[in-house]
Specification:
68 residues; three-stranded antiparallel sheet; two-stranded antiparallel ribbon; 5 strands
Length: 68
């Protein structure tokens, strides 16, 4: 099951939830209001250096973080 990130417009809480379908509606765990799926970002730590999800690092001109 995929993990999706949601935002509640009533109480402004962000939360993650495993859902069986990308079309499945979900309620906020804090207030029960219908919540909206939001764009998720990710960050990893590889060999002691932080990497952001994206096409290149901000500290180099390479097309991939593996070339930094």
């Amino acid at each position: 099951m995929p993990l999706f990130e949601y935002w509640c417009c009533r109480c402004e809480q962000r939360f993650e939830k495993l859902v069986s379908s990308s079309r499945e509606e979900t309620g906020c765990p804090a207030c029960g209001n219908l919540s909206y799926k939001v764009f998720s970002t990710f960050r990893t730590n590889v060999s002691g250096r932080e990497k952001s999800g994206g096409s290149s690092c901000s500290s180099c001109s390479g097309s991939s973080c593996s070339t930094c």
